[in-house]
Amino acid sequence: MDGLYGLRHIKHMTRLATAIGSFPLNNPVICGSGEPVMTEAGIRAALRAGAAGGIAKSVNENPAGGRQLDKADYVRLDALGYPTSEQGVSLFNRSGLSQRDTADWFASIATIDNDARMDGAFVAASIVYAGADGAVELASLARHAGLRVLELNVGAPHASEAAPGAIVQETDPARLTALVRRVRAATQGMQLWIKLTGLSSNLPGLALAAREGGADAVCMMGRFMGLVPDLTTFAPLLGTSAAYGGGWALPIVCRFLALTRKAAGASFPLMGTNGVRSGEDVLRMALCGASAVEVLSATMSEGFSAISRMILELNSFLTERNMNFRELIGRAADGLAGYAEQPDLPGRWRDFVPPETISDADTSL
Ligand SMILES: Cc1cc2nc3c(=O)[nH]c(=O)nc-3n(C[C@H](O)[C@H](O)[C@H](O)COP(=O)(O)O)c2cc1C
């Protein structure tokens, strides 16, 4: 048996089939980039669990990015943002980049990608860039290694806190178009996916800018940055600001997916990331326009079997309703209305205030 439910079993769940543009996927659950897929063994485990593909742990050209991994630290937080020794609902951490030699790493993941291709799966190279020249250089290396997919992360949340020059975050649409255009030129024939930041409110504008530069798809949105004051030490937990993500982020991502679909049209492929914890969550992002999702934190708290579980949950949901995944993509996004279009609900606010607010003594109401 592969993984919890088995890759072969999952491969035959045909109602889960989806695609990123012309790139077909067996199902919409991709294992996102991060420490769990920083080794070949981790990537193979994600694929065995049934993931449609895996985005290998990111690299960049600046050794400071790799050195930052030695300063990485992680804590789980409960629903109110307090540290917990349980699974928690949020992960709060600072991370770093892979310390592997890039050419060696890309060659190695290309071998896994080649094996995965037989099963209709894939392994992507990922770059968290430190500068445009470096991004182009690494993109060329990925292409020469024979990889089919490159994800360029232009929004790693750690950019502001990392050593100067180690990580760049791009929030300017014109600069993003120029960057993507250069990377596109170095990745002809590959899928080029751009992962956008969670720290800008202009996700639709950035998605359009990435498309303008020649991206095949965008993934949104990176995690947020937070600071958790520690009530034992009165100092910042982990000593720094750090990236903060959890299931609570999903509605925020969903809104940006829907707004981006509206701006870019249904034919431009979107992927969702940040907050998916179940098969139902995969579907919620799909309803807002995501053709697939990238999940990571769930594998850190639960193991790679989280991927199998989500796929199975999604399949059950769709089987019970005799539906296919693809027919649901964008349904909620396309029904998104403005406030002014809503029916009047006079006095509805009264149900949400303390009784004193509307006491008989106040005649102004
Ligand atoms: C510990 C950790 C390390 C990560 N490292 C990377 C990375 O190297 N490159 C990248 O593009 N995203 C990275 N991510 C972001 C994840 O791929 C994913 O987009 C994010 O965690 C949101 O999804 P989730 O809620 O399923 O975790 C990292 C996330 C975590 C938690």
Index terms:
binds flavin mononucleotide; TIM Barrel; alpha/beta; 12 helices; four-stranded antiparallel β-sheet; 365 residues; single chain; 17% strand; eight-stranded parallel barrel
List the helices and strands and how they pair.
Elements: H1 7-11, E1 18-20, E2 23-25, E3 29-31, H2 40-48, E4 53-55, H3 63-67, E5 73-77, E6 90-94, H4 102-118, E7 122-128, H5 132-144, E8 149-153, H6 173-186, E9 191-195, H7 203-212, E10 217-220, E11 224-226, E12 242-246, H8 250-264, E13 270-273, H9 279-287, E14 290-295, H10 297-302, H11 305-320, H12 331-334
Parallel strand pairs: 3-4, 3-14, 4-7, 7-8, 8-9, 9-10, 10-13, 13-14
Antiparallel strand pairs: 1-2, 5-6, 6-12, 11-12
Bound molecules: flavin mononucleotide.
Description of the structure:
- With 365 residues, this protein is α/β, with parallel strands linked by helices.
- The protein has one domain: Alpha-Beta Barrel (TIM Barrel), CATH 3.20.20.
- Helices cover 34% and strands 17% of the residues.
- It has an 8-stranded parallel β-barrel with strand order 3-4-7-8-9-10-13-14, surrounded by 8 helices.
- Strand 13 (270-273), helix 9 and strand 14 (290-295) form a beta-alpha-beta unit.
- The longest helix is centred in the N-terminal third of the chain and has 17 residues, at 102-118.
- The chain is globular and about 75 Å long.
- The chain starts with 6 loop residues before the first helix and ends in a 31-residue tail after the last helix.
- The mean pLDDT is 93.
- Bound molecules: flavin mononucleotide.
- Flavin mononucleotide binds next to strand 6, strand 7, strand 14 and helix 10.
